[in-house]
Amino acid sequence: MKCIIYRNFLYKPKFISSNTKFYSTNTKFSLTNTKFPLINIKLYSINIKLTFVNIINNFKNFNTIGSVRFSSVGKKDSNLYNIENIRNIGISAHIDSGKTTLTERILFYAGKIDAIHEVRGTDGVGAKMDSMDLEREKGITIQSAVTNINWNINSSSLGIGPNNTLTNPNYSINIIDTPGHVDFTIEVERSLRVLDSAVLLVCSVSGVQSQTVTVFRQMDRYKIPRIIFLNKLDREGASIDRCIHMLQSKLGVNLLQLQIPIGIGPKLEGIIDLIEMKAYYFRGQFGELMTCEDIPESMSELAEKLNFQLLEKIADHDNDFAQKYLESNFNLDDIRNSIRKLTLEHVMYPLLMGSAKGNKGVQLLLDSICYYLPSHKNSIQVYKYQNSSEFDDKIILKEDYKGLIGYIFKIVDTYLGQLSYTRIYKGILKRGLSVLIVEEDKRVILKKLFKVHSDEVLEVSEAREGEIVAISGLKCPSGVTITDGKQVTMKPMHVPEPVVSMALKNINKSDSVKLSKALNRFQKEDPTFRINIDQESKETILSGMGELHLNIYLERMKREYGINIEVGEPIVNYRETITTKAEFNYTHKRQSGGVGQYAKVIGYIEPIKDNPNEHLNIQFINQFIGNDIKSNYIISIENGFKEICMKGLLCGRPVVNMRFVLTDGASHDVDSSDLAFKLATYGAFEMAYRQAEPIILEPIMSVEVTAPQEFQSQTLSTLTKRKGIITNTNIINEIVIINANVPLKSMFGYITDLRSATKVSINI
Q1: 131, 130, 132, 143: which is closest to 560 by C-alpha?
Q2: What pLDDT, in 10s, does the model give residues 512-566?
Q3: Which of 226, 246, 324, 677 has its CA 20 to 30 A from that of 464?
Q4: How far apart are CA 506 and CA 540, in angstroms?
Q5: For 577-612, what is each residue's pLDDT tens digit?
Q6: Could you tell me if 280 and 271 are in contact, meaning their C-beta atoms sit under 8 angstroms apart?
Q7: Which residues contact residue 594 at a Cβ distance below 8 angstroms, ignoring those fewer than 6 apart?
Q8: What's the CATH code, domain 576-697?
Q9: Closest Cα to residue 660, out of 648, 642, 677, 643?
Q10: Distance (Å, whole) CA 687 – CA 678
């Protein structure tokens, strides 16, 4: 290889130390005191401008005096458009586990950003993925943010040596950073709906927390393969064994531990890869220089033991690998392919570790995302024809299908107008293309397409399957399917029901127009943000997932629309349900001299026995056979059932988790009507509902409080006074972690009382 190398001095992070020598096949060069290297390489007739961090990823047959690994940046490779090399991942966790910090490091090591900024940094910039002022001020993620990077895998020898070439492909990774607070759970739901895989972060100090469990269940709902990453290993009190025990006991997962740390807590130095049996160290100001060395002698015995256990575990669950393992005829690719297979089949989940803020282990995580998580081609999607009620994963998932199918999972109102975030599942999306919004049976022309990087957009002319883009100019809600004309829809996302409401008070008439505009926008963007008018007081009622959820919208109204809103006390959204089966046989009959009313319905109501938190809905099932009731009257019965369930008989709250089954009935040729059957349904419901032992459902919060150990008794007292049931207490390094289940109504104003009782800052 012939190359001419020039160095330009630009402001860049320090990537290599002084007096480092590198060798290629025909070129020898040394760099002395190179703080800010940028290299122009003239390779034959091709000019490539790269930061020095990318040199190794683009040279072939490149030899060095030591194995050195740099981050991947630079010129796009044709492999980026190979559908096998596309990854769509989400990063999810309990609040304050380091999701946004991890994403910031990923962007930096991939060359997407030039500098690292912290979530609660003092430079006034904040993390790239936290684009809202409120996010930067509060130090939390409120909205999910989309970005994309290019990454290149390197083997343990880093593709460096006389017999190795850098033949590993480039990968295109679309990333969605999601909130960790339960109040913004819809952001996690709609992100996971369109992602193929995820990284679940677990704080290595706190372990599995309440929202960790919630997010894990959300991933299960969408059958998302995942990698688990133990973060904050450089923190005092970090414990791998405790985290593994909690993952197995609380989440029931089967883990494949692929790494162990070199040191732990403040003594964390690096990571040992149990597959490659190599030690990785992360040097440089931001850990951007990753070196591969032999495992320290003091840890070699433990590493050998865990490597043996890892291979045995893989062989126990994969017969193909077991055969090669027994014959001692396997290599690194065989191990990785088997791990990938087990991950995609949800048999086991890879366990990685490091410290995002400490700049350790992130590059290895990116490699593992490429190795073990599914590509777009591995994505299993469920469709249904528009006139059908059943979803089927075999309708159009064929290799030769060339039509367009996309799913709009999020909409945001911006200076460009409404941006519709869309995952493309089939075909090519082009600017100016006419598409069908299937649920609305409406055709529209796509005005502009954008690739998204947090709050920045880059206009593109087209996007291919597997990609996530934003479309401008569409007037449609989120959760809809777009096609080139095919009447199919994709399975919708799960939208949880609001649990807290607030009434708007003393609204100025001068603000009514701005208020209406703000509420309509927020309701369109967020399916869990609801607006109702109280029929008695005529007050505007805002409903959402919690106090914080609603307070954020109130603050946004003030900042973005200049509206100061006064609100009443939070109102808990109770629900009603039944606990046992009850039959009904009801006849509605009325004569008034002329045409009368006649309708008879027979059947039963029963509770839905599944997890009530997954089924806050009602079901109507028609088991009627015969001609005694016309088909249009069946629709009236169903509508009547849905209407009466809007207001239960105990406290006037909506009825959920109930199934209405129609088995028989009768009609009259003259006196029967839609109204008659609707009234008959009302009567049947009232008859059966009281016999079905109805109850009121109250939202219960899973609360975790972290406090200094000396305030344990005060903290426990504040929870028990609010009718909390303590479920677990754990002490780690003089810090007490208390878990409890507390009625939502009792949690209003709790943080103020807790801080008053303890006189210190408490995390909850």
Answers
A1: 132
A2: 899 999 999 999 999 999 999 887 778 899 999 988 899 999 999 999 999 988 8
A3: 226
A4: 10
A5: 999 999 999 999 987 766 789 999 999 999 987 655
A6: yes
A7: none
A8: 3.30.230.10
A9: 642
A10: 14
Q: Of 433, 409, 405, 428, give the one whose Cα is nearest residue 419.
A: 409
Distance CA 77, CA 85 (A): 11
Rounded to whole angstroms, the Cα distance separating 449 from 648 reads 47
Query: 78-378 in CATH: which number?
Result: 3.40.50.300
Cβ neighbours, 10 Å, residue 220:
13
| CATH 3.30.70.240 domain extents, the chain | 700-758
| Fold exhibited by the domain 383-490 | Elongation Factor Tu (Ef-tu); domain 3 (2.40.30)
Name the binding residues for GTP: 93-100, 177-181, 231-234
Between β-strands 255-257 and 349-353, what pairing exists: parallel, antiparallel or unpaired? parallel
Assigned token pair, 709 = 């150990």
Q: Which residues are documented as binding site?
A: 93-100, 177-181, 231-234
For residue 348, is pLDDT > 80? yes
Domain ranges in the chain with CATH number 3.40.50.300 = 78-378
Strand partners, 577: 695
Name the amino acid, one letter, at 562: G
**How open is the CA angle 247-250-254, to the nearest 5 degrees?**
45
Domain 700-758, CATH 3.20.20.80 — does that match? Answer: no
* CB-CB contact of 24 with 64 (8 Å): no
pTM above 0.85, yes or no: no
Residue 618 DSSP symbol: E
Q: Where in the chain is the domain with CATH 3.30.230.10?
A: 576-697
> Which is it for strands 405-414 and 480-483: parallel, antiparallel or unpaired?
antiparallel
Instruction: Locate CATH 3.30.70.870 in the chain.
Output: 500-574
Residues 543, 498 contacting (CB under 8 angstroms): yes
Is the per-residue pLDDT at 23 higher than 50?
no
| Residue (of 649, 737, 24, 546) closest to 726 by Cα position | 737
Query: Mind giving me the DSSP string for 59-125?
Result: -SS-EESS-EE----SSPPGGGG-GGGEEEEEEE-STTSSHHHHHHHHHHHTTS-SS---TT-SSS-
The single-letter DSSP state of residue 379 is -
**Sign of torsion, CA 365 370 373 375?**
positive
Residue 3, pLDDT score: 34
CATH code of the domain occupying 500-574: 3.30.70.870
Mean predicted lDDT score pLDDT of the chain: 82
